[in-house]
Amino acid sequence: RAAYEMAQSVANINVKGCFMTKAWEDYIPIVASAHEVMRQAAALCDEAREIEKGCDGVIRIPHKKTGELVHKTALISKPE
Question: In the chain, which ranges are E strands?
Fold first, then answer.
C-alpha cells in the first residue's frame, strides 16, 4: 500500500513542478524529487515481491487453453 501511495503522489509533485513553478532553478529539484519518489516506490514493490516469492505466497493467475482464468499460489502446483 505504501508503494501505491508513493506512486500516486508523484502526479501531484509533477503538477507542481511542471505547471505551477516557472523558474527552472525551482522546478528542476521538484521534478527530480518526483523521479526519486517513484524510484523508491518501485524498490518497495520489488522488495515485497521477493518476500512473497520467498514464502511461496505470490498469487498467480494463469489461464487454460480455453482462456479460463485459474488461480494458484505455489510455484510448483496445479492451478485450481
Answer: none
* CA dist list (Å): 69 to 20, 60, 64, 76: 45, 10, 6, 17
**Domains in the chain: boundaries:** 2-54
CB 20: neighbour CB atoms within 10 A? 10
Alpha carbons 9 and 29: distance in angstroms, whole number: 16
- By the 8 A CB rule, do 63 and 69 touch? yes
What confidence tens digit (pLDDT) does each residue in 29-44 have? 999 999 999 999 999 9
Considering the entire predicted model, what is its pTM?
A: 0.69
**Cα–Cα dist 77/24, whole Å:** 55
